[in-house]
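Deliverable D5.2: sample structural annotation.
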Amino acid sequence: MSLSQNDVKKVSLLARLLLTEEELTTMTGQMSDIVGYVEQLGELDTTDVEPMAHAVEQFNVFAADEVAPSLPRDEALANAPKRDDECFRVPAVLGE
């Protein structure tokens, strides 16, 4: 499956990226390649592969959770293009 430039424009708008025409052309090709690779993975026969959450079995590789001061809400929302009281307003992502 190859993506259209309109598909890439929609993704770039969701990511709040402004792409030039040259970047749009480049990204369309690159993202189409990525989707192609994912489709290839979907064609693999994995009937004899044990289900797993991670490719490598490792446990406790992260630091322990600790409460720390966070960015104040007003400061976090200060540069938001759109906000709704205490939340960021973003375009709908799931469904039209």
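Annotation notes: The mean pLDDT is 89. Residues 82 and 90 are 7 Å apart (CA to CA).
The annotation will be released with the project's public dataset once the embargo ends.
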